[in-house]
Amino acid sequence: MVRSSSGIVTGLTAAALAAIGFLTYQASANAPDDLAEPSSAESARTTAQKAPGAGKHPTALPAESGTGQRVVYSVDGDRVWLVGPRDRVEHTFKVIPGTVDPAPDAYTVTSRSGTITGSDGVAVEHVVRFANVDDIAIGFSAARDGSTPAPDPTRKLGGIRESRENGNKMWQFATIGTRVVVVD
Q: Which of 81, 37, 27 is nearest to 59 (CA)?
């Protein structure tokens, strides 16, 4: 009985391996050509055509933004990334910056407020503060009425405005002590 059972198992294993081999061949025969690895000539041509940073997707996480769980804020790109502990972008979105920018550096969330009146007189919610520049608090917030107008250029304002939906995501993600990395 033992001898016949091992023969059955061997036969089933051989049949399974044959089926896997056939399916692998079938999948590779039907794969689009653009999934193939480029030849060395194609690779060299592509590299030569691209200047450093050229073609970079505007929503791509900046390379110089560090590692680990963090909020990344691009001053030049007016964009935020919420990055999980395994360097996976959980969410990214555009923001409307205030008139005072924080310097590129690593900060931490130092305070939060559920609802307040912003320095521009607008009722805001989900305020997440992480820096001060010349006694101006810098932080993310969402206007309670959902608006995101450009800030008054004649005033010193540190609020970085986001939509209410994105403000809620920031609020859930950026608790006290969360790292905020500011890049150009």
A: 81
DSSP state letter for 8: H
Contact 98, 159 (CB under 8 A): yes
Report how far apart, in Å, the C-alpha atoms of 69 and of each of 20, 28, 81, 90 are: 39, 38, 10, 10
- pLDDT score at 18: 57
**Per the structure block, which two tokens stand in for 34?**
């653009």
| Residue whose pair of structure tokens reads 């150009």 in the numeric block | 184
pLDDT digits (tens, 9 = 90+) for 1-32: 555 666 665 666 666 555 555 555 554 444 44
Q: What is the DSSP string of 90-122?
A: EEEEE-B--SSPPPSEEEE--EEEEEEE-TTS-
Task: Quote the tokens at residue 174.
Answer: 């950026």
Enter the tokens of residue 109.
Answer: 């969330």
Interacting residues of 115 by C-beta distance below 8 A, sequence separation 6+: 123, 124, 125, 144
Burial category of 8 from C-beta neighbours within 10 Å (exposed 0-12, middle 13-18, buried 19 and up): exposed
